[in-house]
Specification:
Layout: E1 5-9, H1 17-24, E2 30-33, E3 42-46, E4 49-53, E5 66-69, E6 74-75, H2 77-89, E7 98-101, E8 105-106, H3 109-122, H4 134-142, H5 149-152, H6 156-173, H7 181-195, E9 199-200, H8 202-211, E10 216-219, H9 244-250, E11 259-265, E12 268-270, H10 282-291, E13 304-306, E14 308-309, H11 310-320, E15 324-328, E16 338-347, E17 350-352, E18 366-373, H12 390-403, E19 407-411, E20 419-421, H13 426-430
Helix pairs in contact: 3-4, 6-7
The chain binds guanosine-5'-diphosphate, 6-O-phosphoryl inosine monophosphate and magnesium ion.
Length: 436
């Protein structure tokens, strides 16, 4: 019996979830996204060829794998078509193996506009969103006025009424705005037609897949510290990126999740606003950014960089019940004279070792670091633990101790093959047999 596992972000996103999902996919029959939208940018390199997935699960590059977009995802039809077309140009066809939940909510063209407007209104307090309309689409969902994929294919009169009402509410929100609802309605009908072959009851499909003894990988987007409930609110995204989002975002029971792999970089990055206690500036930040190519996969924005924060990963491990860490980008630290691990924050309320809810505590917080010697022998491309220099192994061991979870995967480069799977780890068990 195969185990269904979750692969999700343990920091602030861009940990390398795409690479890890792609690397593990041969052991699963299905890969399913449960939340977020095309704010995600998951990069996968195969034989030097770069693929960036936004909405479609990162398992799509393996022929024969079913890829599912769950009801918890907000779908911008235009972004989805663009991605499908781009994959087609690169020789990857999705037909017959891409499924989109009939219950997924649709991002409407004016949600993007509302996103930008809301950021402008916040001014200095802006979130630094990806401007993809994610927040406004989830607002409409929770406000019970959203439009779902099945609505595009159902009763036209009912859809016309919803679109008319929504557009008129939007016109009231934007000064002097007189958007006409009819073109929006017509466009949605056309989008529905193109999406039709992919639309499915994904909860049922997943149930049937699992009942047949086949295994599923649940792919998270964003990350635990960007989770709407558990992240650095309000500097978060608008969905549950942590493990809880899987059940609601796909219609699967908690018992379906047999393992949780939290992806964490060997340092920390964040794009957008909000606290980043270990943030570095100057030469060292620049060094990490350039070596790690830390520029947003969706927006191209430079990512803020800092040392590994064990308070954050330990918190993520607790929230998600992480069985193992997939530690990525170890190679980016190659050649540094020393490396650091943050184990607490000195705050106005004393030293804090559990991630706080009140962000004001973090404003002037000073990280408490453990400093260790770096390594000069490169880890880049290593595929076995024994190939790693002793100092890198010591760094990983200490990182595991202070994070409270062991590394099941260590990634030493962006290619599929530049990966170490720790023998006797849960990951070794999950990947014991290939499905195809
Ligand atoms: P995701 O959103 O979590 O999938 O991560 P992104 O794709 O946004 O960012 C991670 C970046 O790091 C991508 O460009 C990956 O190709 C790259 N990457 C992943 N793992 C490694 C690694 O171990 N070493 C290096 N150097 N790059 C990696
Ligand atoms: P992946 O899946 C990193 C950040 C944005 C912003 C905040 C809210 O590639 O790891 P939103 O557009 O979601 O309303 O923006 O969340 N953000 C991400 N940061 N990686 C991502 O996705 C992100 N998706 C959203 O920068 O701070
Ligand atoms: Mg990304």
């Amino acid at each position: 019996m195969q185990t269904n596992i979750a692969v999700l972000g343990a920091q602030w996103g861009d940990e390398g979830k795409g690479k890890i999902v792609d690397m593990l996919t041969p052991h699963f029959s299905t890969v399913a996204r449960y939340q977020g939208g095309h704010n995600a940018g998951h990069t996968v390199y195969v034989d030097g060829k770069k693929f960036v997935l936004h909405l479609i699960p990162s398992g799509i590059l393996h022929p024969g794998v079913t890829c599912i977009i769950g009801n918890g995802v907000v779908v911008d039809p235009e972004a989805l078509f663009k991605e499908v077309d781009e994959l087609g140009r690169l020789g990857v066809t999705v037909d017959g193996r891409l499924l989109v939940s009939e219950k997924a909510h649709v991002i409407l063209p004016y949600h993007r506009e509302l996103d930008v407007l809301s950021e402008a209104r916040r001014g200095e307090r802006k979130i630094g969103t990806t401007s993809r309309g994610i927040g406004p689409a989830y607002e409409d969902k929770i406000g019970r006025r959203g439009i779902r994929v099945c609505d595009l294919l159902g009763d036209r009169e009912a859809l016309a009424t919803e679109v008319r009402e929504n557009v008129s509410a939007r016109n009231r929100m934007i000064k002097d705005s007189t958007l006409d609802w009819q073109p929006v309605f017509q466009q949605l009908l056309a989008h529905g037609e193109r999406m039709k072959p992919w639309v499915a009851d994904v909860s049922l499909v997943l149930h049937q897949t699992m009942s047949a003894g086949k295994s599923v990988m649940f792919e998270g987007a964003q990350a635990t510290l960007l989770d709407i409930d558990h992240g650095t609110y309000p500097f978060v995204t608008s969905s549950n990126a942590s493990v809880g989002g899987i059940c609601t975002g796909l219609g699967v029971p908690p018992k379906a999740i047999g393992g949780v792999l939290g992806v964490a970089k060997a340092y920390t990055t964040r794009v957008g606003e909000g606290p980043l206690p270990t943030e570095l500036s100057g030469e060292l930040a620049e060094r990490l950014r350039e070596t790690g190519q830390e520029y947003g996969a969706s927006t191209g924005r430079p990512r803020r960089c800092g040392w590994y924060d064990a308070v954050v990963v330990r918190y993520s491990a607790r929230i998600n019940g992480m069985d193992a860490i997939a530690l990525t980008k170890l190679d980016v630290l190659d050649g540094l004279p020393e490396v650091r691990l943050c184990v607490g924050y000195k705050t106005s309320a004393g030293v804090v070792t559990e991630f706080p809810a009140d962000l004001r505590l973090l404003v002037d917080a000073e990280p408490v670091y453990e400093t260790m010697p770096g390594w000069s022998t490169p880890t880049k491309g290593a595929t076995r633990i024994e190939e790693l220099p002793a100092q890198a192994r010591r760094y990983i061991t200490r990182l595991e101790e202070v994070s409270g979870v062991s590394c099941g995967v260590i990634s030493t480069g962006s290619d599929r093959n530049e990966t170490i799977v720790a023998p006797e780890s849960p990951v070794a068990r999950w990947t014991a047999s290939p499905v195809r």
